[in-house]
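Good morning C.,

I know you're traveling, so I'll keep this short. The sequence:
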Amino acid sequence: MLNDENSYLFKFAWKSIRRNSGRSFFIGFSVSLAVFIAVWVVAFFDGLNHQIEKAVVSTNTGYFQLQELNYSKSTDSSTPLAFDSYSKLLTPPIKSYSPELVLDGNISTPEGSTGLTVIGIHPPLHQTFLPIHKRIKEGSFIETNDEGTVLIGQELAKLFLFKVGDQIVLNYQDVKGELRSELLLIKGIYKFSSNAFEKRYVYINQKTWQKLFFNEDKNSILFNRIVIMANGLKDGPVISQRIKTTNLDFKTWKNLNPEMAVVLEFHDGMIRFFFLIIGMTITMTILTPVQMLWQERLKELKMLNILGVSSRKFWKIGIFELIQMIISSGVLSSVFLIVIIGIQSYTGVDFRFLNKGVSIERAGIKLPNVIFPQLTVEQLLVTFIFVIIVLTISYLWAIHRTLKKLEVAP
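The tokens, ready to paste straight into the viewer:
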């Protein structure tokens, strides 16, 4: 609680702000607007980074992967492990997972040829990991007991004129390194992720994969990798610690897609640089108006000094003004952020006009055209810190310069 003297000085400071309402409003509004722009940029890039991360992990990548060591080092699929021996590790914070077998192959038709990545999945577990089963455009999703069937992407079907019920000739190497070809019946065509994803990845069940590669059914779920969905990279240390004593290699999506990881790191660095520039610019912009505001009161301060007001009390008045301006500017900035970003977090910011609606793909990932900014408590905290730093520097410098001219007695 303020004592009588401080209470009076606090009210005096408020009256001083109101008496110079035009300039005080300019100072407060300028700081609020600068902070709003800076934090909006942070919220925008936070939203963009989140959407890029979701686009990456919502493919065959996942947030994390547990990889069999031979496959991790050389992508050699010949030494898969039994899933039952490791399923007990897949507890919370892991949300979902899919044990997968990976086989490189290619197809060659009169329309051309292309390389494929054939993913052997256990359909019930894969359906909890990726919603591809909900994105079937034609036909149906593969089932556990299907034999010789394949699920392909819409882009692959479009390029090679495939339809449900057609057969594709898959060329590949088996476990002995022998070149083989196999007819697979197209059971379904999916529309998911990017065109590059749809063109490259095809899905078969584990039983079919094992017969193709090993020429036999192992009667168990095997894996070269277990792809994992979690709450985010923050769960990495817990999962990594859990598998320390196993013969598995732990990788995050940033290890598996370094191109997009660099993009996100670049965004983070650009945000910090932008904040620094905005902070320096607004400080220099506000410094002069605040100093003029106090210098215009020089005669008033001299009169008060003659009446016995000391420099200590002048400092108190200045600091009380500073506190009130911080609160006013911080609240105004927060209102701007909550209202505008709150709306944009639902409507998004549409940038499709920049590329005429054409999707942009990088590293096989479709980049978002509509960005949904994300407002967080941390951003509001940054808002108040930013306001405090800018106004504190400006006011303390202005008070110091004014009192130095006044040369009041302590």
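Safe travels,
E.
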